[in-house]
Design brief:
Length: 145
Amino acid sequence: MGIDVRYIVRLPAGLHLGDDEIGAIGRDIEPLLGNDYWRIRPWDHEYSIGTGETQPGEQLLVVDTLTRYYGKGYSRGPWPTIRKVIEYLVRRFPDGEVFYGSDSDTATIVTDEFLADTDAWWGEHGTRPYHSLRGALATHLAEGE
């Protein structure tokens, strides 16, 4: 069990998507996510997304996945794939706000700076920090320490 990606879009004021529109967005996202499980749904509940609670009448669009989260301190997921989904959501909702987070925590608003920082981390480290930890643990267990 691990920490998985959750994408959230705060839709522009007054925009509410129906089932057909949400389904079309899901069909656009599906090729980006490949065979990973995912679910797209509206989220009309109060939910902290890093910048405060939702406002009355505001709709959030949530994409839950089984794709492992990627970020500093949790370098497990496929950042290039994650970034493609983020880019799609930013293009699809230019007047909305896109957030990237996990299924176990609040999310961070996607900014150019956030993408550049995460790209730089991926370029320098990839998933090596995670695999290095796994290797060290396996060695530790094998030595019986």
